[in-house]
Design goal:
Length: about 110
């Protein structure tokens, strides 16, 4: 299991190179699957990259660690529209807006430190 510092991974400072991890997503909206993490480049004033959130990514809410799946991303407000998942990672039809600072990816074989 890979140990990753939560603050370093999310917005503490830009990474110089991507961390090799796999994130979970809902394939076809029902099947839990994994794919390589995607990253975006930071603006011209800073060098580096940061993890990105994409539609169908399975995420966890910082407050209660409950799983959600992203169904829409609001780029200008840095919010995601997400559907809550049950314990079996099935859709519940309960939707909520979450800020990107409140969520983190559900990653395979990673322990947050």
């Amino acid at each position: 299991m890979k140990k990753i510092n939560f603050k370093d991974f999310y917005h503490e400072w830009p990474m110089k190179k991507p961390v090799s991890v796999e994130k979970y997503y809902l394939n076809d909206g029902y099947t839990l699957d994994t794919r390589q993490m995607t990253y975006s480049f930071i603006g011209v004033d800073q060098e580096g990259m940061e993890p990105t959130f994409e539609i169908d990514d399975v995420i966890l809410h910082q407050r209660d660690s409950k799983p959600y799946v992203i169904v829409k991303i609001e780029r200008f407000a840095s919010e995601v529209y997400a559907e809550k998942l049950d314990v079996n990672m099935k859709r519940t039809n309960y939707f909520i807006w979450l800020e990107e600072t409140e969520i983190y990816h559900k990653l395979k074989d990673v322990e947050w430190v």
